[in-house]
Amino acid sequence: MNREQMTIADLYDTTKTMAAPYLAQYVYPWEVLPYIGEIVLAVGGTLSEDEYDHPQQDIWIHKTVQLAPTATIKGPAVIGAGTEIRPGAFIRGNVLVGADAVVGNSTELKNVILFDNVQVPHYNYVGDSILGYKSHMGAASLTSNVKSDKKLVKVHASDGDIETGLKKFGAMIGDYVEVGCGSVLNPGTVVGRHSNIYPLSSVRGCVAPNSIFKRDGVIVEKDDR
């Protein structure tokens, strides 16, 4: 997967997020990570009081959201129309969840943008990441957002490493990606559109669009016949 395949334009349909005008200012999605909190606040400031509840400072929840009473939401946070926040969900702040998404039981989100129709439905951790339209993380799959040696994260593109300057960087997951149950996306992972990750995978590096990640070193192109 080369650098050109990792741009925001290549990974995401930005018409499927309220963050679209802010994402347009950047080339690569990880460049957005330090500014997600500011983006959430900017989006929240544009939202109609007729459509969104504003229960606490820096929290906006669409009136159609199904919000479990045992869920915890800390701002800044925006939760879009038709989304379901299930029991025990923990939204830690700097979180923008799009429309018709699912944030599941005991799922934790921190410093993330979830596009519309994203599903993180069962025991997921997603931190310092961006998940594209209709992407789905299987049960107990998660993003690992800090390297064990605490060094800055690099993106390992096929045409050379990219220095991000970031200590915290989970995964950039393109539109329509399926992540199998129990998988770990290691720091700096980038997954192209329409790709699948086998269950119980440990993904390090980049997965090209329209691919199947079977195991480390075994990535095959999808056959759509």
List the helices and strands and how they pair.
Layout: H1 8-11, H2 20-23, H3 36-44, E1 52-53, E2 59-62, E3 66-67, E4 72-73, E5 77-79, E6 84-85, E7 90-91, E8 95-97, E9 102-105, E10 108-114, E11 119-122, E12 125-131, E13 136-137, E14 142-143, E15 153-157, E16 160-166, E17 171-173, E18 178-179, E19 184-185, E20 189-191, E21 196-197, E22 202-203, E23 206-207, E24 211-215, E25 218-221
Parallel strand pairs: 2-5, 3-6, 4-7, 5-8, 6-9, 7-10, 8-10, 9-11, 10-12, 12-17, 13-18, 14-19, 17-20, 18-21, 19-22, 20-23, 21-24
Antiparallel strand pairs: 1-2, 15-16, 24-25
- Radius of gyration (CA) equals 16 Å
What is the ordering of alpha helices and beta strands?
HHHEEEEEEEEEEEEEEEEEEEEEEEEE
Describe the largest sheet: 11 strands, mixed
Oligomeric state: single chain
CATH H-tier superfamily: Hexapeptide repeat proteins
CATH first level: Mainly Beta
Annotated CATH topology? UDP N-Acetylglucosamine Acyltransferase, domain 1
The counted number of beta strands is 25
Q: What's the N-to-C terminus distance?
A: 23 Å
Structure explained in plain terms:
The structure is a single chain. The chain has 225 residues and is mostly beta strands. It has a single domain (3-221), classed as 3 Solenoid (UDP N-Acetylglucosamine Acyltransferase, domain 1), CATH 2.160.10.10. The protein has 3 helices and 25 strands. The strands form 5 sheets. Strands 1, 2, 4, 5, 7, 8, 10, 12, 17, 20 and 23 form an 11-stranded mixed beta sheet that branches. Strands 13-18-21-24-25 form a 5-stranded mixed beta sheet, with no helix packed on it. Strands 3-6-9-11 form a 4-stranded parallel beta sheet, with no helix packed on it. β15 (153-157) and β16 form a beta hairpin. The longest helix is centred in the first third of the chain and has 9 residues, at 36-44. The chain is globular, with a radius of gyration of 16 Å. The model has no long low-confidence stretch (mean pLDDT 96).
